[in-house]
Amino acid sequence: MEKETLLVTNVRPWGAAAVDVLISGDTITEIRPASRQASTDETTTVVDGGGKLALPGFINAHAHVDKSWWGQPWVSYGGEATTQGRIAHERAQRDKYGIPSANGTERVLREFLRHGTTATRTHVDVDLGVALDGIANVRTAADRLGGAVEVEVVAFPQDGVIRRDGVLALLDAAADAGAHSIGGIDPCAIDRDPVAQLDGLFEIAERRGCGIDIHLHSGGDLAAFEYELIIDRTRRAGLTGKVNVSHGFGLGQLATDRQTALVEQFGELGISWTTVAPTNSAPLPWRTMLDRGMGLGLGTDGIRDLWSPYGDGDILQVALDFAKLHRVRYDEDFVGVAKLATSSAAPFVHRSVHDVTVGARADLVVIDAENVPDAIVRAPRRDLVIAGGRIVATDGEVTI
């Protein structure tokens, strides 16, 4: 069967000169200077980009798409505003709101598409209450959308690893069933046994060949201690390029020389970082992290869930928060931030290339903006979203 072709005319990738982008199947096959009268055959669908800015599809490198009550009646905030309090509240209330479910996850993924996100790394709760059901629901939801949002799963032990007998076995089963990574959480504060948690996670990762993506919320010296343990375990296990730290707010609280020493080792071992850029956190040494070869990605975290009523799935808003937090002012730095949400985040979803370039998966976001800084500062409506060669959203509304 001949592949369907799509021609997106008169768009400006990254704000450069206008081009026409030819897509065959799910791949960008040609980029050529914009033509007033693009020649096509009857099998080609032509879409006029109107001279607007074009970016690669956004990559949400840290999400929790299994936990949202998006699309349901408003759920009032309850429980204690601590990590332990949020865990307890969620465990007590989630069944009441049908969490997790394939329908709830699909609603979140549709919001991702509406905002131009075409790939995500999502943490999915694995615990004694839901077992692997959340992962099954996420995969069902992604399948319903025909892979428009490519989903990479991290099996996530939100309620702790060691303190709940049986969680390590569930993480092992998830990795055996195809989870790209297994997660961990605050080995000191939650399990209160960092050696046992990391021993368990790294043993599974070594045996199954999966990655590790660990939530760390601690600050100050405790944060540095956890980072040092992870550095040591990564080096001893030979898991270079397979470990990611999620959140890791404590890194920004450390003295510059201590930050630099840690970042040097993170870069050497390919330990990457994902942040949701909360504006009340300490800025990360992001330029140093990139200079030392670290991967750095942006994510939305939870979206209207039992942890927080905030969030709408718009990674461009996260990029704006990141820019504000790090006092970005110059155009080249705005472009660097945009790349954190797009092209340079490719490794977080195991892509070798993710850009408006020949050979890449055809994920394209068209925005009515003068340039990249303008797009970040205003976060305007996404006028056209193409995912895997399919038009999935126009004028800010999902069409599939």
TrEMBL record:
InterPro entries: Amidohydro_3, Metal-dep_hydrolase_composite, Metal_Hydrolase, Metallo-hydrolase_Enzymes. Pfam families: Amidohydro_3 (PF07969). Residues 105-393 form the Amidohydrolase domain. GO terms for molecular function: hydrolase activity, acting on carbon-nitrogen (but not peptide) bonds, in cyclic amidines. It comes from the Bacteria. Gene3D superfamilies: Metal-dependent hydrolases, Urease, subunit C, domain 1. PANTHER family: BLL3847 PROTEIN, CYTOSINE DEAMINASE. This is Cytosine deaminase. It comes from Stackebrandtia endophytica. The lineage of its organism: Bacteria, Bacillati, Actinomycetota, Actinomycetes, Glycomycetales.
